Amino acid sequence: MDEQTRDLLVFAVIGILAGFLASFVVGGNGLIRYLITGIIGAFVGGYLFKALGINLGIGNAFVSQIVTAAIGAIIVVLLARILA
After folding, report:
1. First CA to last CA across the chain, in angstroms?
2. Do you know which Pfam families this protein is assigned to (predicted)?
3. pTM for the predicted model, two decimal places
4. What range does the domain containing 71 cover?
């Protein structure tokens, strides 16, 4: 497996896990919904944390990315519900 394929798989796993974690807070179900919410949340969370200078202080980069994406996913779902 080449590096680009591995990176896409890791990104998908992070998205699914983040969406799954976000579903505990805001509800929802389904693997595709977890994936979409988690991937969008990864971008939103990463952007917000960088713009606000927030560092979670988690030593493991993989866990830090999942938590950041989950927080971003929660924000995305809540904003979608407010706007809907």
Report:
1. 41
2. Transgly_assoc
3. 0.87
4. 3-83
